[in-house]
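Figure 6 in text form: structure in, sequence out.
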């Protein structure tokens, strides 16, 4: 007899493991199946965590090289890349093991192997020796995430033509690196290798980087990254990438038909990710996909099959770990008869470059398109005392509020700690706050957060320090 569960989650990433823990907290007998051999999904194994570790370590390396400007003499600064990579791997191991402990603590049964549907209520699990076992499930939650997309006809070898996964474990610093795509991954991984000494060139299809973010912020980010030494080739399309003895040759063409070729040691292709429904046997059980091959769900995360749900990168919406986690909690609560819910208007997006970029709610471009009248409050970190005191004053805070009601509709930040500062705006927006509510909230001095208060004051043209 195969084991029976009230809920089975396929995929142990931030969507899946969080969902499994919440289901178990709510009293359901729950299992979580993960094929990669360790929990935490893309995020912990080959995404958020290793990239943030390398972003931090490469930033420390860069800062250490410039400390003498600040009166701290430490002698020659040398890179030990293999040690740096070991530090990154240590962070990954600690966190993935931590998730395994959390599943155990919450009494979630953890199955190592690839899950697929035998029927709507029967799941096959094949381990790495191809040994199959079966479990029964009343409800199934698909949380199988996403995988990197390449360009047509181009295969990742993860050494010369790399996805983010290869870019996180290069064993030497490339002399020259071409990054195709100026989005989240291209800019974060491009920053890492640029700080470690690579000559980084970003080839981007559009006329701006970080598409979807507020244009003023994205322009400012590009200006700053250029100053840091990253080259941008905008409105360029890659025609071919060919491997040669020493790396790769890339042919590109711009919007006016001008050709530009690149020779490089490594090319990172970061043009997006695609939902991962491989091997699940969805056709057999009739689960519908949308036009982008994402699993189609209703607002309660239910697919067109009554007992089957889907969350995270494998469904529509931003491919972000915190979005997947919140969906995991909401679907668990819905299955348990509660009213789980995700507010898609307040999901922050953060790019962990230096400085960081953080965004929540509507951009100016979206408000114009929706014909919503709005006011803008802006405050530069150049006028923030903490930022000036520590010589870290690039960027600004921008708050968008409804012209009539003053309700905060969006906020866009570029600057140190932007990824932390955005949380205050998220809480404000969840409570339907006005810019005046933020402006009248006492913020500690001297902190970066005072720039948020001043931007809120500036919505009504009454900032004090500018
Ligand atoms: P995933 O994390 O992809 O997890 C799905 C899991 O399901 C995988 O472990 C996979 O092995 C498993 N699986 C797939 N098929 C099966 C099967 N048939 N049986 C069993 N298991 C299966 N997001 C952020 O919010 N912040 C960041 O800073 C950030 N940085 C990133 C950096 C990089 C380089 C990358 C690539 C992504 C980053 N992301 C970041 C995005 C984030 O990683 C994803 O949005 C998030 O991991 C999605 O969670 P998920 O649970 O939906 O899917
Ligand atoms: P992305 O969607 O962020 O950026 C892709 C970029 O590639 C875009 O600027 C797009 O215009 C460009 N592009 C597309 N096709 C192209 C082509 N043929 N030639 C040149 N440019 C092209 O995708 P990504 O950077 O691969 O990241 C995938 C997803 O992973 C992100 O959308 C995000 O959801 C997630 N992620 C998040 C974080 C974070 O939260 N800090 C970090 C990394 C990844």
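Output sequence:
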């Amino acid at each position: 007899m195969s084991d029976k569960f009230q809920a089975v989650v396929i995929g142990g990433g931030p969507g899946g493991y969080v969902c499994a823990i919440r289901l178990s907290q709510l009293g359901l007998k729950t299992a979580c199946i993960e094929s990669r051999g360790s929990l935490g999904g893309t995020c912990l194994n080959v995404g958020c965590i290793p990239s943030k570790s390398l972003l931090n370590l490469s930033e420390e390396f860069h800062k250490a090289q410039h400390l003498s400007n600040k009166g701290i003499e430490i002698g020659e600064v040398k890179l030990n890349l293999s040690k740096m990579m070991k530090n990154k791997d240590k962070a990954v191991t600690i966190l993935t093991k931590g998730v395994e402990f959390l599943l155990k603590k919450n009494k979630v049964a953890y199955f190592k192997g690839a899950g697929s549907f035998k029927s709507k209520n029967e799941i096959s699990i094949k381990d790495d020796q191809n040994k199959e076992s079966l479990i029964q499930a009343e409800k199934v939650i698909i949380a199988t995430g996403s995988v990197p997309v390449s360009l047509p006809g181009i295969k990742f070898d993860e050494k010369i033509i790399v996805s983010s996964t290869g870019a996180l474990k290069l064993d030497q610093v490339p002399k020259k690196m071409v990054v195709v795509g100026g989005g989240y991954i291209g800019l974060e991984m491009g920053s890492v290798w640029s700080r470690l000494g690579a000559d980084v060139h970003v080839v981007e299809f559009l006329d701006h980087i970080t598409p979807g973010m507020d244009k003023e912020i994205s322009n400012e980010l590009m200006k700053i990254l250029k100053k840091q030494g990253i080259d941008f080739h905008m409105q360029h399309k890659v025609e071919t990438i060919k491997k040669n003895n020493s790396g790769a040759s890339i042919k590109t063409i711009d919007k006016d038909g001008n050709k530009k070729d690149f020779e490089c040691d490594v090319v990172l292709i970061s043009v997006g990710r695609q939902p991962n429904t491989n091997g699940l046997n969805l056709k057999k059980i009739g689960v519908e996909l949308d036009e982008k091959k994402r699993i189609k769900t209703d607002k309660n995360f239910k697919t067109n099959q009554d007992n089957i749900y889907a969350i995270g990168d494998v469904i529509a919406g931003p491919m972000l770990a915190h979005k997947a986690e919140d969906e995991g909690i909401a679907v668990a609560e819905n299955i348990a008869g509660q009213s789980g819910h995700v507010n898609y208007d307040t999901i922050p997006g953060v790019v962990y470059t230096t400085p960081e970029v953080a965004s929540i709610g509507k951009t100016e471009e979206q408000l114009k398109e929706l014909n919503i009248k709005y006011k803008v409050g802006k405050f530069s970190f150049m006028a923030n005392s903490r930022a000036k005191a520590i010589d870290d004053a690039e960027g600004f805070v921008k708050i968008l509020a409804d012209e009539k009601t003053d309700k905060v509709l969006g906020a866009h930040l570029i600057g140190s700690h932007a990824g932390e500062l955005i949380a205050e705006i998220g809480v404000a927006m969840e409570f339907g706050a006005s810019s005046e509510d933020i402006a009248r909230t006492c913020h500690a001095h001297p902190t970066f957060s005072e720039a948020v208060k001043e931007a809120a004051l500036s919505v009504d043209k009454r900032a004090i320090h500018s």
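Caption detail: The chain has a mean pLDDT of 97.
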